[in-house]
Write a structure and sequence with these properties.
The protein has about 170 residues and is an all-beta fold. The protein is built from no helices and seven strands. The protein has a three-stranded antiparallel β-sheet with strand order 5-6-7, with no helix packed on it. A two-stranded antiparallel sheet has the order 1-4. A hairpin with a 2-residue loop joins strand 6 and strand 7. It is elongated and about 65 Å long.
């Protein structure tokens, strides 16, 4: 919990704070699967008053051979960043890539990358049918790279680039 103990400047009961919220990244898919998407990334300013605000830090998605998981959401009060999407998994159950803050990358069978959330991340990359291993998961700065070369082994598609912005300085504290 984040607690605001005092009123704002000049006796106001409210004050503005700058925030950065980053959610947990998605798990990568196994056996020629796609890369997990980056957790959603949000920045902004919110007006707060003297009270407590719930803070949630989202964990990264767990990797299970048959079922990679999306990352978990992070939040401050009611403002949330969406967890990253899982990469497509090519093991026995063959799971499609998951949407999220940034989308997971496509794999050998489920070739389409998943969607990212507007303003928080980008789409996962796609693979051509039979390409192995899979495409990269999306990042805040760009979409995951596509995987086009076939073959049983090779280099996976690269993940999307991250992004950095903002100033987390309030009343001289960083």
């Amino acid at each position: 919990t984040f607690t605001v103990n005092t009123a704002g400047a000049g006796g106001s009961e409210y004050t503005d704070i700058d925030y950065i919220i980053i959610a947990g990244g998605g798990a990568g898919g196994g056996v020629a699967g796609g890369g997990g998407g980056a957790g959603g990334y949000r920045t902004g300013t919110m007006t707060v008053s003297a009270q407590g605000y719930s803070i949630t830090v989202g964990a990264g998605g767990a990797q299970a051979i048959n079922d990679p998981n999306n990352g978990n959401n992070s939040s401050i009060g009611s403002t949330s960043a969406i967890g990253g999407g899982r990469g497509a998994d090519q093991y026995s159950t063959r799971t499609a890539a998951g949407s999220g803050g940034s989308g997971g990358g496509g794999g050998r069978q489920y070739t389409s990358g998943a969607s990212g959330t507007s303003g928080q991340g980008n789409d996962g990359g796609d693979t051509t049918s039979g390409a192995s291993p899979g495409a990269g998961g999306g990042g805040k700065g760009e979409a995951g790279h596509d995987k086009t070369a076939g073959g049983s082994y090779g280099h996976p598609g690269a993940g999307g680039d991250g992004s950095s912005t903002g100033n987390a300085n309030y009343n001289g504290a960083t």
